[in-house]
Design brief:
Elements (H helix, E strand, L loop, with lengths): L23 H4 L7 E2 L5 E5 L4 H6 L7 H12 L17 E5 L12 H18 L3 E4 L2 H11 L9 H4 L4 E2 L4 E2 L10 H15 L14
Amino acid sequence: MDAHQDRLSNPFNMDEQCTNCDALPETRTQVVHGYGDVGAEFLFVGESPSAAADRTGVPFTGDAAGERLQRILGDLGFSRSSPDATEPDLQNVFLTYLARCRHPERPPADAEVTNCDPFLTAEIRMINPHIIVPVGERALRTLAVEYTTRDPERFDIDEAHATTIRGRGFELVPMHSLESQTDADTEAFVAHVRESVFGRDYRQTKGRRSR
């Protein structure tokens, strides 16, 4: 955890009572803002909280899909806690979503993702990661609008999973959604990060603050 950071959960003190979307304050348990190391080089971005994350308040925790990601983080050296931890002990990684509130009957509407964009943009600017991991096709296509020069509609998560996409100021390393991810997908992602990301100098000169 960054030496100047006092908590992993919502470290930037973003609005936990947000009412920007009319429907969601009535359907959510809580707003699920980002969690992790504010000095991280790796940022994982999912679509929206699962039912479990809505309950725990921590992205990618509390269910089998969350445990899969937490195992991945452990394998990559980013987590020092059990995969079933609801407040994982993370280093060099930050977890967040496009949309911060859960609707139990549908994915987030485009307008709801747009309403949450200032939260995500602020996290990306303050963390200034080297690698962004879009989790699932919605996250990949949404992030592609701002951070790549390619047509977002041309991205296919099946083709992009466990590859590196050079973007504007960042590199994107997409992964399949955790709910549909197979063990082979997981192994391929971990192997790609170890061999093709850790195995070279992925750090770019971006004027990062000293850490």
